[in-house]
Amino acid sequence: MSASSTTNGKTLKVRYFDIEENPTEHYLNAETGLKSWLFTVDHKRIGLMYLASIALFFFVGGVLALVLRTELFTPAENLMTAETYNRIFTIHGAVMVFLFIIPSIPAALGNFLLPMMLGAKDVAFPRLNLASFWIYSIGALFTLASLAVNPIDTGWTFYTPYSVQTGSAVILMTLGVFIMGFSSILTGMNFIVTIHKMRAPGMTWGRMPLFLWAMYATSIIQVLATPVLAITLALLIMERTLGIGIFDPALGGDPVLYQHFFWFYSHPAVYIMIVPAFGVISELIATFSRKTIFGYWAIAMSSLAIAFIGSLVWGHHMFVSGQSELSTVVFSFLTFFVGIPTGIKIFNWLATMHKGSIDMKTPMLYACIFLFLFTIGGVTGIMLGAISVNVQLHDTYYVVAHFHYVMMGGTVMAFLGGLHYWWPKMTGKMYNEFWGKISAVIIFIGFNLTFLPQFIMGSQGMPRRYYSYIEQFQTMHQLSTIGSYILGVGFVIIAVYLAHSMFRGQKAPSNPWGARTLDWMTSSPPAHHNFNYQPVLNNGAYDFHKPIADFTLGIAEDDHGHEHKGEPVKQQEQNA
Amino acid sequence: MAEAHSVDNPRLLHHFRNADQQFSSSKLGMWLFLFTEIMFFGGLFVAYIIYRAWNPELFTMAATQLDTMLGAVNTVVLIGSSLTIALAIRAAQTDKQKMIVNYLLLTIFLASVFLVIKYFEYTHKFDMGIFPGAYYTFDGIDHPKANVFFSIYYMMTGLHGLHVIIGIGLMIWLVIRAKIGDYSSQWYTPVEMCGLYWHIVDIIWIFLFPLMYLIE
User: Fold this and answer.
1) CB-based contact B134 A251, cutoff 8 Å
2) Global confidence as pTM
3) Could you tell me the CA-to-CA distances from A438 to A88, A247, A417, A488, A495 in Å, in that order?
4) Which of A535, A547, A561 is nearest to A202 (CA)?
5) CA–CA separation, A47 vs A113, rounded Å?
6) Ramachandran region of residue A158, left (φ > 0), alpha (ψ -120 to 50) or beta?
7) Beta-carbon separation of A227 and B1 below 8 A
């Protein structure tokens, strides 16, 4: 009838629970009205609010990208002046980096999934979690205000001394980024504490889904690096208001110091962007290969290794900024070094797929696109880490193509894969598989058409951030622009069918993909407090050889000896 | 389950299994926050180290303009306030409700003394024309980068002072809640967390004092 499971030396009475299919009451309708969203402390709703926000900013940043590409269709003035062009590429970069990609997987998917994957009812600090969202929103308002006042033209890196001299609204913009940094820090703190303290009975570190290991590594970087960005931007703001001169050569300061400070955050920040994507890919590949993940600990530890080594490579952004030869050599070496844990991940994923029964659903299609594009992005990154090659390619389109392959080909593809994968859990509705695959293919084609030519023209010497160019680059620029339109079409299709599925989509079963992680061991959409029982784990997150029913173990009675109420007991006999 | 617990302990939030889990979560969260504070000030300490390595003579010259006596008094005051807030936590653990309030008020008093002394230090320098960076007009230090030293000085002590002000605000809030009798040996998490915060503010000053005032 009921079994017992021993955790931490205490014996728990456990039994199997049934998962309710298509429940009438769930977190989406537990409370209603605008206030029930804006002031919710439910991590799932906060995750969805982040999702809506980042979708909005991805749209804004994406439209700006299309505007830039349209301007570059010919070397002449098509849409805007050179000055406007500078402002638009700055805003495209800042919006995509600070408003979209940094919160994308951690804050949206992470918030929604992290407590459920742990078998917890919520994150450790739910009110702080809501505060993170509000701080993010306030920061975003400052950034938008800077656009209304005088859009900045410094590039998203705000390099001094130009950022001190320009007349554009640098203070508002950097204040916005400063504020959003606190949102990132608080989310990271919350996740670390949640992973340490809120794991369900039986959820040992070795049974955690790899997405959680990735989130853990990401959170460490967020807590470690973001405060340094905060102080850097605070100094920049003081530089503009009080003329403190720490970064200003005219007053005895040093502008290269600003670059060191900035990249001390912003290089680890690219791992804030990509490591959660690794976590998503681990889930997708294991589930759709129907196989225990290959090299669980190698993947888990490589996330931490990337977080650690990735914090020591910032100097590779300054090979031509006048840092010493010794530090250039050291930073170059460490940059190669970070390729090792990343390679470990790629090979483990491939080994997981090897002889698996691969089910090429849309999320898996995105995972494969990720493997392809991210590998190109990663390998070209190693090339850029080589000093002599870097000097040649510095500030060319080669760099632009490289980081778009990593950030868009990597993070955005993983994000799309994750979004499709967890869409049934979030909304309780299935997306359209046919259109899902079509748009994935369109995005793949559009992406490569946009950015492959940029590698070529970059290697031929086309500098980045230029408003005009010489005739020989026109074909490449036009291919790239056409590619970006195709990419745009792909995203529009996704937006349409996802919106359609919310209203007209098929109802989703609780576990449409046959996954084994706890986030699937609850109804779709989940109950208000995630589970109708306190989950207990006896299996690993990727034990695909065990039946799904083995994963719905829960505590049979609470600490006071009261039986849990409200759950059906049908399945008990079968599993006892 | 939540209902059963809430009878036992009204402070236990629904998503925690027991009070121990809740308390240790708060404590881990606070330690992580303190870690971010160190990284935040760390940027300024790095700027200090770099400029001092480049201009060692500037730092010894400029430090003569800082009043070591006032700095020392402030150090003693802050260390004393760390003791009094620790005693406030102790009072909460031993259910001495009235002493929680008294020790917190004493801590607030000491923090205010620190700020008053800092105010006189700042205004004295302003009178002499020692402003940060571009507004620096003092000609008593014969070094072209004297302004940068004081930029770093004002940034570090100013940011620290801001933390002191925030700490006073937090303690006023604690006093109000302690007066209603919110804290007892059953639950005193906010007092403990505020104490941790106050200790980091104290420790940062303990580094600032020798680095700024005691250079020779």
Assistant:
1) yes
2) 0.93
3) 31, 50, 14, 14, 13
4) A535
5) 8
6) left
7) no
Cα A39 to Cα A43: distance, rounded to the nearest angstrom: 11
| A189 in reach of chain B (CB within 8 A) | yes
Helix A362-385 with A397-406: angle, nearest 10 deg: 140
Architecture, CATH, for domain A3-575: Up-down Bundle (1.20)
Give me A298's structure tokens: 């190698």
Q: How far is CA A435 from CA A293, A493, A500, A543, in A?
A: 29, 8, 11, 31
Q: Which residues of B touch A196 (CB under 8 A)?
A: 25, 28
Give ipTM to 2 decimals: 0.92
Mean of the per-residue pLDDT values of chain A:
93
> Which one, of B26, B74, B51, lies nearest residue B201 by Cα?
B74
> How high is the pLDDT of residue B14?
86
Q: Identify the band that residue A45 occupies on the pLDDT scale cut at 50, 70 and 90.
A: very high
pLDDT at B137: 87
Using alpha carbons only, what angle is made at residue B101 by residues B99 and B104, rounded to the nearest 5 degrees? 105
Q: Is B19 exposed, middle or buried (0-12, 13-18, 19+ CB in 10 A)?
A: middle
Per-residue pLDDT averaged across B125-138, rounded?
A: 89
Is the pLDDT at A562 greater than 60? The verdict is no
Please give the C-alpha separations between residue A182 and each of A98, A186, B138, in angstroms, as whole numbers.
12, 6, 37
- Angstrom distance (rounded) from CA A439 to CA A493: 6
- Please check whether residue A357 is in contact with residue A290, taking contact to mean a CB–CB distance below 8 angstroms: yes
CA dist., res. A110 & res. A212, Å (int): 9
DSSP assigned state of A518: G
The tens digit of pLDDT for each residue in A278-303 reads 999 999 999 999 999 999 999 999 99
Q: What is the 3-state secondary structure (H, E, C) of A82-109?
A: HHHHHHHHHHHHHHHHHHHHHHHHHHHH
A381 and A270 Cβ atoms separated by less than 8 Å = no
Fold for the domain defined by B32-213: Four Helix Bundle (Hemerythrin (Met), subunit A) (1.20.120)
What confidence tens digit (pLDDT) does each residue in A308-353 have?
999 999 999 999 998 899 999 999 999 999 999 999 999 999 999 9
pLDDT of A392 > 50? The answer is yes
Interface of A with B in 237-256 (CB under 8 A): 238-239, 242-246, 248, 251-254
Helices (H), A243-358: 255-289, 296-310, 325-353
pLDDT > 60? residue B6: no
pLDDT in tens, B150-175: 999 999 999 999 999 999 999 999 99
Interface of B with A (CB under 8 A): 1, 4-5, 13-15, 18, 21, 24-25, 28-29, 32-33, 35-37, 39-44, 46-47, 50-51, 132-135, 144-145, 147-148, 151-152, 154-155, 159
Banded pLDDT at A567 (limits 50, 70, 90): very low
**Which residue from B4, B13, B42 is facing A228, i.e. has the nearest CB?**
B42
Q: Sheet holding A3-7: strands in order across?
A: A3-7, A10-16, A553-555
Percent of chain A whose predicted confidence (pLDDT) is above 70: 95
Inter-chain residue contact B32 with A252, CB threshold 8 Å: no
Rounded to whole angstroms, how far apart are CA atoms A270 and B8?
46
Helix ranges (DSSP H) in A505-561: none
Contact in structure between A450 and A484 (CB atoms under 8 Å): yes
What DSSP state is assigned to residue A20? P
Q: Domain extents for chain B?
A: 32-213
- pLDDT of A10: 65
The domains of chain A are located at: 3-575
Rg of chain B on CA atoms, in Å:
21
Yes or no, beta carbons of A227 and B36 under 8 Å apart: yes
- Indicate if the pLDDT at residue A186 is higher than 60: yes
